[in-house]
């Protein structure tokens, strides 16, 4: 399976915003392949404090395919979850 063979939907969100429910609803669709784990942290910085089984280094985009449950089957949409993508440096006014 190649990254170019599929469509991808990357959903970023903040904790307690209903993103887990959205993940579950989308994952139930037969044409959607959810990532496993739900939060892959694939595109986050290498020094991010939480671990990741695979991280993007600018050259290894194909390794993201290993993070999807049905990577051996033909699927229409791969769903990656990045809940920790949004960070606030200071309190909003």
Give the topology, please.
Layout: E1 7-12, H1 19-27, E2 32-39, E3 77-82
Parallel strand pairs: 1-3, 2-3
Record keyword descriptors for this entry:
22% strand; 93 residues; mainly beta
Major sheet description: 3 strands, parallel
The value of Rg in angstroms is 14 Å
Strand content: 15-25%
| Count of domain modules | 1
Question: Can you describe what's shown?
Answer:
With 93 residues, this protein is mostly beta strands. The protein has one domain (3-85). The chain is built from 1 helix and 3 strands. The protein has one helix spanning 19-27; strands at 7-12, 32-39, 77-82. A 3-stranded parallel β-sheet has the order 1-3-2, covered by helices on one side. Residues 71-75 and 82-88 have low confidence and may be disordered.
